[in-house]
Write a structure and sequence with these properties.
Elements lengths: L3 E5 L5 H13 L2 E4 L13 E9 L2 E2 L3 H5 L1 H4 L3 E8 L6 H10 L2 H6 E7 L1 E2 L6 H16 L18 E2 L7 H12 L2
Parallel strand pairs: 1-2, 1-3, 3-5, 5-6
Antiparallel strand pairs: 3-4, 7-8
Length: 179
């Protein structure tokens, strides 16, 4: 049986929540990716890396991309956490932009919905959201669309759902049987 580790980067806690659920379901270690060294991963066969989608990019993947040649022989699962619906073209576009075609062939990705907590954001993030909100209000196609969670940012929204990680858990457990 292989040895797995869940690595994650979380800004407001939603990716952390998913990482904790995965770690418990697989009975494996959980580590913040920014505190991990390459040598820490030598004993692991499988990496599950979780990061949030932010401004069209997947955060938390710098470590993987920087160390790709050393990690390519491991099984690597990517958990993308964002606010998009899972089946949108934007999710696929982010995936394709983040990784090369060779990397995509060797990685498996899973997309789950996270949440947004305005109070946990830094000043830069709050400014970006405010600019986006203003832009949406001034465009014809944006009018009315800000009435959802963007329109009322003072209230946190949480779309996390433990059941949404089941396909990932099943695939990893199936992979254990093949080792």
């Amino acid at each position: 049986m292989g040895k797995e580790v869940v690595l994650f980067r979380s800004k407001t806690g939603y990716t952390l929540r998913y990482a904790q659920w995965i770690s418990r379901a697989l009975d494996c270690e959980l580590r913040e990716i920014q505190n991990v060294k390459l040598s820490d991963l030598e004993s692991y066969d499988t990496l599950i890396i979780g990061g949030s989608v932010y401004l069209g990019a997947l955060k938390g993947m710098d470590f993987l991309l920087k160390n790709w040649t050393y990690l390519v022989h491991k099984k690597i699962y990517i958990l993308m956490v964002g606010l998009e619906e899972p089946d949108t073209k934007r999710v696929e576009k982010i995936w394709r932009r983040q990784f090369t075609s060779q990397q995509r062939r060797q990685l498996r990705y899973y997309y789950v919905k996270g949440g947004l907590n305005y109070e946990r954001l830094g000043i830069f993030d709050k400014a970006i959201i405010l600019l986006f909100k203003l832009l949406m209000q001034t465009t014809k196609t944006g009018k009315g669309k800000t009435q959802g969670f963007i329109g009322n940012l003072r209230c946190p929204v949480d779309f996390t759902n433990r059941e949404s990680i089941e396909p990932l858990i099943k695939d990893i457990k199936k992979g254990r049987e093949c080792m």
